[in-house]
Amino acid sequence: MSQTLAMTVNGRAVSVTVDDPEMPLLYALRNDLGLTGPHYGCGLGQCGACTVHVDGVAARSCQLPVGAMAGKRITTLEGLGTAGKPHPVQAAFIAEQAVQCGYCANGMIMESASFLAQTPKPTEAQVREALASNICRCGTQPRVVRAVLRAAAQA
Amino acid sequence: MDGMQLSRRGLFGTGGALVVSFALGGAKPAAAWTEKPVALEQVDSFLAIDAQGRVTTYVGKVDLGTGLRTGFAQIAADELDVPMTAVSVVEGDTALTPDQGPTYGSLGIQIGGVQLRQAAATARALLVAEAASRFGLPAETLRTEDGAAIAPDGRRIAYAALVGGKAFSRAVDPGATIKPPEARKVVGKPVPRVDIPDKVMGRFAYVHDLKLPGMLHGRAVRPPAMGAVAEAVDAASVAGIPGIVKVVHEKGFVGVVAKTEWAAIKAQAALKVRWSAWAGLPEQAKLWEHVRATPVAQRQVTSEKGDPATAIKGAATTLSASYDFAIHTHGSMGPSCAVAEFKDGRLTVWTASQATHNLRKQLALMLGQPVEQVRCIYQEGAGCYGRNGHEDAAADAVLLAKAVGKPVRVQWMRAEEHGWDPKGPPTLIDLRAGLDAQGKVVGWESEAFIPKGAGGNVDLVAAELGGLPRENLLSPGNIVHNLAVPYGFPAVRTTCLRLESTPFRPSWIRTPGRMQNTYASEAFLDELAAAAGKDPLQFRLENLDDPRGREVLERCARLANWQARPSPQRDQSGEILRGRGVTYVKYELVRTYVAGVAEVEVNRRTGEIRVTEFFCTHDCGQIINPDAVTAQIEGNVVSTLSRTLKEELTFDRGTVTSLDWASYRTITFPEVPKITVELIDRPAEKPWGAGEPAAAIVPSAVSNAVYDATGVRLRSVPFSPAKVRAALQGA
Ligand code: FES
Ligand code: FES
């Protein structure tokens, strides 16, 4: 039984037609809306690769049934900043070269942007704690911490 | 194409006579599916310059997230004298790029970059020769800059006007002069990586993001026990899932194809299959007994000098120990993914494989199709640290695409990645040594128990399960390195016992063998230093002649403010004990030198180890991009600390049980230490690898630091709190 859901994604009103409202938001973003910034990493809420903002707060899109997203305001990495005006966290990730394969970077950036919105002047320990459930297998953690602190210092 | 070529005479042979020397387009070999020359000895295989002067480089080595792409662009830009922005890099496309071997062994720059550099140097010489003949001047009087050849009187001809859009049609000249260090503009500089802005802005196209017209989504259905066979598949059990296209059952290979990814995921979970029983794995609690009991296929002596057995027997002090290293998964952040398409009888596969040229052969073999009809195109995926599941996902996609006659994308689920990627094999190392009365090493013997190895490929899961043709080799090869030690002991024998089998499909994971062997040797060396009552740094230096080796160690000691004294430290009071450990490797005993110092805090009550600082000094010869090398070292330290302290595959008699990030623990942000890196750049030397060597020193640095803190020696990776507590209680 397909169903059409209206939501706002990256500032644009969109509708998604799905035959299963239990499908995680992640697949609607990636496959129906062509927004591939969020990645599938675990589908279990354990790694952070799929993170988006829902009504301004970081959330793991692999854990959100798309059916519950009607009327929500969703931001993906693509909508966080623009090429001309990257979000301060994005600019800091570039400045610190805080990326290797970058598969985790979506989660690192989206989680950090949401965290800094709540905690604009964090300590290093707070940054590390905020990212404690974000995994990176390439070992970018030292640079990610530096990037988040840089973004905080420049905001 | 050949018919359009106006002259094939070599410029070097014509003394610079005025000839229209560049062919239009490239010669196309008939046999293989190639769209341009790809032979290793041809300039055109590596680069092309178009009518706008843009340079496209073609490399068989691929960027696995390490920054190799940027390094290649730097090398080509400097060697050709073009701006970096004019250079683009095509990687790992079997129809376009030369086969430079898989991207492994920290050879991306060392081999891949050096071959590209020689091709670019040859191209530059050809461009200069052509410009010289047009100017009517000797080639030596010309210089190149910003994509043009320039005469002493200031006249310039752009490369685009010299060769734009045409082929060089010349062999790579092994004697072509490479830019001397002082003439390099971007090589050796911390140039920002070309891929990072797109990755940070969400614009980067990973293989996971590829969408072809008419593409369907597939998932393989794996047996619940690794060796179980599908006896019956009930396609009706998923017929009710909207969007289901087909259930595929080919011998032991089972999979589903659907119109949407979510439908494929649901069908994968819901499909009813009757599986045979299988319980062929050893009991995990008896893993090391199992390893010791496995028949030895081959004894491979990797270094031999004098008569260590007799020397040890007669020594004043004799030590022996066994070290083990757990089974690890790659655990790539993004589960493996590929897209396969059959069109006009030919197969194209988009893959993040580290070895597209090899994968192509494996897929052709599996299908019984000529290799000429298969093309593999590299598209970056999540970082892989050796041969992970990318190739297997490709085989899954191929079988499913073939079954439905449409392009199919497969991405593994997390449990498949943790369960089915090939594993770093369990490694066990026995060591014995003797010291004389002055504390000098008189003899050293070690034996590593590692699987039999071959230089071939890791078999494809789908081919194995489906009973399809495959190479059937037990990889990995090359994991014997660094059992031989870099120290000048008077009597040494190091032997690899190559085992007939190992519980899981083995493959290479970052620093394979070199890490396990270095870990055992460098920790055991520390045991000897302690038995001799000597400072561990001094003990190493006493046995090391190599000046570059001494330099990394001495500089690392300064970096870490090393205080000379024997281990363990004296203060054993309080709950938290602090210590430091030093360690050293000369990679494969022939290249990159690395020294490290770890500082740790050990909680005596909980058994937790906190690595607070890690210092690393690194000499990989010529550095192409110091920031990228630093990033590799940091990555090596972080991921190997994760492996050393936490990672361990768990399994029952049928299959892997550590199938997610909760059961296969990895390092978290609060656990990452402060890392300080010191690079030694040698611009006049060869560039050596940096992707792996620093990983080799990490486990021994931690073992040595924990010993220094506590007086207790850890010899079993991972150094879990339970093992630390047990060791402390036993002390
Ligand atoms: S994919 Fe959502 S947390 Fe891992
Ligand atoms: S950069 Fe590769 S997983 Fe983080």
Automatic annotation (TrEMBL), chain A:
It comes from the Bacteria. One of its GO terms (molecular function) is oxidoreductase activity. Residues 3-80 form the 2Fe-2S ferredoxin-type domain. Coiled coil: none annotated. Keywords: 2Fe-2S, Iron, Iron-sulfur, Metal-binding, Oxidoreductase. PANTHER family: BLR6046 PROTEIN, OXIDOREDUCTASE WITH IRON-SULFUR SUBUNIT. This is (2Fe-2S)-binding protein.
From TrEMBL, chain B:
SMART domains: Ald_Xan_dh_C. GO terms for molecular function: oxidoreductase activity. Residues 201-279 form the Aldehyde oxidase/xanthine dehydrogenase a/b hammerhead domain. It comes from the Bacteria. This is Xanthine dehydrogenase family protein molybdopterin-binding subunit. It comes from Dankookia rubra. The lineage of its organism: Bacteria, Pseudomonadati, Pseudomonadota, Alphaproteobacteria, Acetobacterales.
